[in-house]
Amino acid sequence: MSESLLIELTVFVLAAFVGIEVISKVPTTLHTPLMSGTNAIHGVVIVGAILVAASDQGTVTTILGTIGVAFGASNVVGGFLVTDRMLHMFRRRPGEGSRDE
Fold first, then answer.
1. Angle at 69 between CA 63 and CA 72, to 5 degrees
2. Residue 41: which pLDDT band, with cuts at 50, 70 and 90?
3. 12 is a domain residue
């Protein structure tokens, strides 16, 4: 195994552990705002993946870029669906007005 591959795998594993630790500490009240931010970040990821897929650096690079576009797009769509569903929980139902007494 080459030294650069070992360094890249080490960074990946450490990033995964840090990501899991950070995500597990997020309270549920912050979930919706964080999903909105994540959707914006994945929009940037999709642009990068499109650039990688469009580059002429070989078949493997094109395939990995296409997979990146698909995963990024599914993450954005899923994030918007979850955010929309959570926002529906806070809407008033018909017939529920403010009760000023």
1. 135
2. confident
3. no
Q: Residue 50 domain-assigned?
A: yes
Structure-token pair, residue 100: 């000023």
Would you say 69 and 43 are in contact if contact means Cβ atoms under 8 Å apart?
no
Q: Which two tokens stand for residue 45?
A: 């990821």
Say yes or no to pLDDT of 100 above 60. Answer: no
- The residue assigned the tokens 């309270």 is 27
- Looking at residue 50, its pLDDT comes to 92
Distance separating alpha carbons of residues 52 and 92, to the nearest angstrom = 45
Q: What is the span of the domain harbouring residue 36?
A: 32-90
Report d(CA 44, CA 42) in Å as an integer: 5
